[in-house]
Design a protein that fits this description.
This protein is α/β, with parallel strands linked by helices and about 290 residues long. It has 10 helices and 8 strands. Strands 1, 2, 3, 4, 5, 6, 7 and 8 form an 8-stranded mixed β-sheet that branches. Strand 7, helix 9 and strand 8 form a beta-alpha-beta unit. The longest helix has 27 residues. It binds adenosine monophosphate, fe (iii) ion (FE) (2 copies) and zinc ion. Zinc ion (ZN) binds next to loops. Adenosine monophosphate binds next to helix 5 and helix 6.
Length: about 290
């Protein structure tokens, strides 16, 4: 069974509509796909309504969270939530806050660029986002359209870099709070790419142990941002701490150079995720039966 538990559609910063994404997943030979758009469950209904025969859908989201840095400031950490109640009041309130936060912050980044003579507009970026929570990849597409870079990935190395002149941070949810919030909504929390892109500096083995004790269910070990030694170490830690190990592509359509099913989750891990959920929200499709 081929299981990919982390993908993004046009409901956040991917480029395929949920239905297109699921059709491509079926063509790629996947049996189970999780829809995990950033800070929203807006794609759940279309995913359910366009689920190809024989496939199983896991409804989820990728929560934007933050963790204090020992030297001061914060580090962004992504937390996958699966099978949580989408109308849980705490989650709805926090997602609404983040959607507004993302919009204001996206506009501020574009304003910084425009003040420096970069010829893109807020209107075009919001049009590209198409009502989805605004993310840097949407600004990246505007930069590609303006001929300033040849790809979104190239934009991230310069214009959109977190260390660049135009960057504006957003205020994310405290990580401990997000773990508790997902658990209280009957869901299952899995740290996304914990040692990719710098987060490893705050997500130390001791911190992972504390998070596991506080209700974190799993960690995404097999992710394109993790090399083999990183995966081996994380797999060992997960074993020691009783955490569920997952693997996924983090597919974003044309916004990233990743293929659906590039990394996969074992069926035993999926079974543990379903078992750990309150079952108020269940998988849809053959695996649920
Ligand atoms: P934001 O959430 O607005 O801070 O933007 C971060 C998002 O940009 C991540 O969720 C990824 O989807 C995407 N991203 C980060 N780094 C890269 C990169 N190097 N190339 C393409 N997309 C990236
Ligand atoms: Fe993304
Ligand atoms: Fe992520
Ligand atoms: Zn992601």
């Amino acid at each position: 069974m081929r299981i990919d538990l982390h993908t993004h559609s046009t409901c956040s910063d991917g480029t395929d509509r949920p239905g297109e994404l699921l059709a491509k997943a079926q063509a790629a030979g996947l049996d189970v796909v999780a829809m995990t758009d950033h800070d929203t469950t807006a794609g759940w209904l279309e995913s359910e309504n366009s689920l190809p025969d024989g496939m199983t859908l896991i409804r989820g989201a990728e929560f934007s969270t933050q963790e204090a840095r020992p030297g001061g400031g914060t580090m962004s950490v992504h937390l996958l939530g699966y099978l949580f109640d989408p109308v849980d009041p705490a989650i709805m309130t926090e997602q609404a806050r983040l959607v507004a936060e993302r919009r204001g912050r996206g506009i501020a980044i574009v304003d910084n660029m425009r003040a420096d003579g970069v010829p893109i507009t807020v209107e075009r970026v919001l049009e590209i986002a198409g009502g989805a929570p605004v993310g840097r990849p949407h600004i990246g597409r505007a930069l590609v359209e303006a001929g300033l870079v040849s790809s979104v990935t190239e934009a991230f190395a310069g214009y959109l870099s977190g260390r660049g002149a135009y960057y504006v941070p957003k205020i994310d949810t405290d990580l401990d709070h997000a773990v508790a919030m997902i658990g209280a909504a009957g869901g299952v929390s899995v740290l996304a790419h914990p040692w990719g892109r710098g987060a490893g500096s705050v997500l130390t083995p001791d911190r992972l142990a504390a998070l596991a004790a506080a209700g974190l269910h799993g960690i995404e070990v097999d992710h394109p941002d993790h090399d083999e030694p990183t995966r081996r170490t994380l797999r060992g830690l997960a074993g020691d701490l009783g955490l569920i190990v997952t693997g996924s592509s983090d597919y974003h359509g044309h916004n990233k150079t990743l293929e659906l099913g590039q990394d996969l989750t074992a069926p035993e891990s999926l079974a543990r995720i379903v078992d750990a959920s309150s079952k108020v929200v269940a998988p849809i499709g053959p695996v649920a039966a």
